[in-house]
Amino acid sequence: MTLREEYRYWSLISIIALAIAGVFALLLVFSRTPYVQDILPWPWKSFFHKGLVTHVIFSFVVWFLATMGAFWAYSLAQQQGDDAHSKIGGFALLLAVAGCLGLILPALLDLGEAELNNYVPVMTHWLYYLGLILLAAGLLICAVRQMIMRSGFNGQKATAILYIIALICFTLAYSYLPDGLSSPTYNERLFWGGGHVLQFVNTALLFLAWQFVARDPILSPPYVVLTFGILVVFVLPTPITYLIFDVLGQVHRDFYTDLLRYGLLLPSLIFSLGLIRFLVSEKRRQLDRLTQQVFWLSLITYNLGGLYGLLLDGTDTRVPAHYHAVIGGINLSFMIFYHRVLLPAIEVPVREGRLFTAQYWLYGLGQIMHASGMFLAGSMGVPRKTSGDAQALDSLEKVLSMGLMGIGGIIAVLGGVLFVIMTLKWMMSARRVG
Amino acid sequence: MKRSDYIFLPLICAIALFLGWKLFAATEKDLSGVIIQPIDDIGAFIAAAEQIQPKEGEVYLLAQQWKWSSEITLQAGRDYILHLATADIQHGFHLPREAMGQSVDILLQPNKKYQVNLRNLKPGVYPIGCTEYCGIEHNKMRTKLIVLE
Ligand code: HEM
Ligand SMILES: [Cu+2]
């Protein structure tokens, strides 16, 4: 398989993953919006949970990881040529596709129970875990290939290192967790450390996406090395935590929360400032207007989420406010990466127009509203990840902020749906012609 | 390299080192002020948690899937000892920082009891949540601390 085919397939996987997630997102937003949730016939209480697992795993884990696969194949192609062959690349893709089947089948066939543990929610069925392992293995192959490339330390290598460390953390957790734990505790602790490390991977992916789209360097080489270096240095000691702290204990648990607070702040700040400098300099003229606007949207959404992350305290909707905003900022960077870098590279024409521009504004502003509504509601004490009566919406402010969240969510989903439909349609029809 | 880089690069390294040190230091301070003891008879704890008026200045709160044993009502300006335990699997006790000027977050593991001092409580109503994922209804595990003037 050529490298160009490789990155085309990784893109297809990631965008189809988003399509799957999108269907579930729409249903979930309705089930959480005041008044609408009363009108809808919503009998399936257990659907809410299974739907949430499927939504999260595809919109967060699969979409991010498959885009990472596209990044790596694309950057290899830049060095070795689009038509360079890689035997192992096709095998990695095969593993990932098989993995996705394992992730979706349990929800469709109602196998196992939903468990909404942090970062990597699961359906408790062997097929699902097998799916996770296959997906992770597919990307592990790509990560190793990236590591043994002859080149100095760079963002791609840093991401590969971070990803491999995350997998090491999962493996260590698996081997240190005692038998006989309840399913919630088991899954939470299994995915806790590695899940936090994956947020470093995701941050690195944001920087890589910005850099691909900007083309001209956003930061000069020493800053690039330093920024990615800090991400790696913070994560390097994490496997040791499994040896010295009890995996089930409080110190281990709090270490990872603090890891986000202390480890992500500085790299995010450096790269964001670099991007701002880029966007106000003459260099921005090489970019079309929409791309510049999307950069700003991505920058603002991501940093708003970072700020919410620093302010959170406890268990209310401020936690999802935080991660919806950071993830929204990263998603915007991926969207523009696909449209400005990847589709042109596989000769898929991108049709500009009002709807094209609209998807970015809808998604970006919608996500900002969605997250800010949640943040406000959380500040007033609305608990997270519940729906209906448990939310205790007993004041006008709460209802308004939850309404903002609901409307923002719908707007964001519209933007996301536009992205998925347009991009998939273009990719599919170009394929038939080509 | 530009001249400004000789200032910025070392500065960034210094901040990174400082944050790394903070992270390292954070592993030490976590459990200060919390007394943890093994518990062999959860029954006695449950009984204490069910009592309406336990010993003066002592409060019991029991966590279980997916509820807390009760709401807690206390007087501002007095000191209390809060006793915590879980009846089943791991849970997390969380009191937001507004209540005492500093948030309290304690992971509750089975077969242990936890003792923490509540001091300088400010009047108000504070949500108590579970911060350790404990199953599908985890987010419904909520109660309140009510502090009266
Ligand atoms: C910008 C710097 C960031 C800071 C300061 C930060 C901080 C935090 C903190 C303190 C928590 C709650 C504690 C915990 O669950 O351990 C959290 C949760 C979370 N963060 Fe971040 N984070 C940052 C970036 C990110 C990024 C880049 C992502 C993913 C793209 C992310 C995704 C999440 C998710 C999904 C959760 C919630 C897990 C859950 O409770 O379901 N964060 N973050
Ligand atoms: Cu709990």
Describe the structure concisely.
The complex is a heterodimer of chains A (434) and B (149). Chain A is mainly alpha-helical and 434 residues long.
How many angstroms does the end-to-end distance of chain B come to? 62 Å
SSE sequence of chain A, one letter per element? HHHHEEHHHHHHHHHHH
Strand order of the largest sheet of chain B: 1-8-5-2-3
**What's the shape of chain A?**
globular
Major β-sheet annotation of chain A: 2 strands, antiparallel
Low-pLDDT segments of chain B: none
Mean pLDDT of chain A: 89
Proportion in helices of chain A: over 70%
**Major β-sheet annotation of chain B:** 5 strands, mixed
Q: Identify low-pLDDT runs of chain A.
A: none
Highest CATH level, the class of the largest domain in chain B: Mainly Beta
Describe this structure in words.
- The complex is a heterodimer of chains A (434) and B (149).
- With 434 residues, chain A is mainly α.
- Among the domains of chain A are: 1-151; 288-434, no CATH class.
- Chain A has helices at 3-32, 36-39, 45-80, 87-109, 126-147, 155-176, 183-214, 221-235, 238-244, 250-263, 265-280, 289-311, 318-345, 354-379, 396-433; strands spanning 114-115, 122-123.
- Chain A has a two-stranded antiparallel sheet with strand order 1-2.
- In chain A, a hairpin with a 6-residue loop joins strand 1 (114-115) and strand 2 (122-123).
- In chain A, helix 1 (3-32) runs parallel beside helix 4 (87-109), helix 11 runs antiparallel to helix 12 (289-311) and helix 12 packs parallel to helix 14.
- The two termini of chain A are 16 Å apart.
- Chain B is of the alpha+beta class.
- Chain B folds into two domains: 1-30; 34-148, Immunoglobulin-like.
- Helix content of chain B is 23%, strand content 38%.
- Chain B has helices spanning 5-29, 42-50, and strands at residues 34-38, 58-64, 67-68, 72-75, 80-86, 91-95, 104-108, 112-118, 124-130, 142-148.
- In chain B, the strands form two sheets. Chain B has a five-stranded mixed sheet with strand order 1-8-5-2-3, with helices on one face. A five-stranded mixed sheet of chain B has the order 4-10-9-6-7, with no helix packed on it.
- In chain B, a hairpin with a 2-residue loop joins strand 2 and strand 3.
- Chain B starts with a helix and ends with a strand.
- In chain B, 34% of the residues are buried.
- The model of chain B has no long low-confidence stretch (mean pLDDT 87).
- The A-B interface holds A 49, 113-118, 181-185, 187-188, 220, 222-223, 226, 230, 233-234, 245, 248-251, 253-255, 258-259, 262-263, 265-266, 270, 313-316, 381, 383-386, 390 and B 1, 5, 8-9, 12-13, 15-16, 19-20, 22-23, 26-27, 30-31, 88-90, 94, 96-97, 103, 105-107, 109, 127, 129-136, 138-140, 142.
- Bound molecules: protoporphyrin IX containing FE and copper (II) ion.
